[in-house]
Write a structure and sequence with these properties.
alpha/beta, acyltransferase, transmembrane helix, acyltransferase activity
Length: about 270
């Protein structure tokens, strides 16, 4: 049954994407940019409904009060699945994303990205990339936008050792805005590079902002420590609440080590 539900959802997901891009393109490209945001945000919400109705996967967000009410900030999130690439857009007022320029070459989708003034970069350019990204991001943030970034750079499997990239520390130093960390484990229900989708309920946990002004090295260490501690606690909590979700060997090993640590410290809850 899970296999059938996964197939139905995947078909519905891509049909939903294609049809919405076609149907709403006239409004999207004619509307003012901020108003046009309604189209991708509604698409994200429709995907949440599809995932709930077809697969039985739901989520909740904790810590929305930690998002600054105005001005630019960096939203630094864990990245495990395609789900978290779009899922939180409805709760970010005017997000901007640094992405590889090849995505702008995709017909229609590339035009959607361009309309939203996303920041395409050539990853092969190395040193020039960061300067370009900072300059473009600073300009967008001066207009009150929020940078959505994944500090580990790419999707990581559940249970993998952290691999944070120092680029976020440079952005923190140069942009001088708050950084709001966010942890979640959608990879348990929507595994990366897999077609299976699993039912269950999970939480997205938004942590208190790290304010600007710290030494970049101090910030980087604090970000990693805070995110990993919260991520480990949330992983254990999510697995305990969803015993039916299959775990990869890597995730199983990680959970076992967390359980052992919790038992040794005498805690039953993360």
């Amino acid at each position: 049954m899970i296999v059938l539900r996964s197939i139905i959802f995947n078909i519905a997901f891509y049909l939903n994407l294609i049809l919405r891009m076609i149907i709403f393109s006239p409004y999207y490209f004619l509307a003012e940019r901020k108003k046009a945001w309604r189209v991708p945000k509604e698409w994200a919400m429709s995907n949440h409904r599809l995932l709930e109705k077809i697969v039985g996967t739901t989520f909740e967000i904790e810590g929305l009060e930690n998002l600054p009410k105005e001005g630019g900030f960096i939203f630094a999130a864990k990245h495990q699945s395609f789900w978290d690439a779009y899922a939180l857009l409805p709760w970010i007022e005017d997000g901007v994303i640094i992405l590889k320029r090849e995505l702008t070459w995709i017909p229609l989708f590339g035009q959607y990205i361009t309309k939203m003034r996303m920041i395409p970069i050539d990853r092969g350019a190395r040193g020039k990339v960061m300067k370009h990204a900072v300059n473009r991001t600073r300009a967008e943030m001066e207009a009150g936008r929020q940078l959505i970034i994944y500090p580990e750079g790419t999707r990581r499997p559940v249970g993998a050792e952290p691999s944070y990239r120092y680029g976020i520390a440079r952005l923190y130093r140069d942009l001088r805005v708050p950084v709001v960390p966010c942890v979640m484990h959608p990879g348990l229900f929507w595994p990366r590079r897999k077609s299976m989708r699993y039912p269950g309920h999970f939480k997205v946990r938004i942590l208190p902002a790290i304010q600007p002004g710290l030494d970049p090295d101090v910030f980087f260490a604090r970000l990693i420590s805070g995110m990993e501690t919260a991520s480990d606690a949330l992983l254990l909590e999510t697995v305990r609440a969803n015993p039916q979700v299959p775990l990869t060997p890597l995730a199983r090993q990680k959970v076992a080590s967390l359980e052992a640590a919790a038992k040794e410290s005498g805690t039953t809850q993360p």
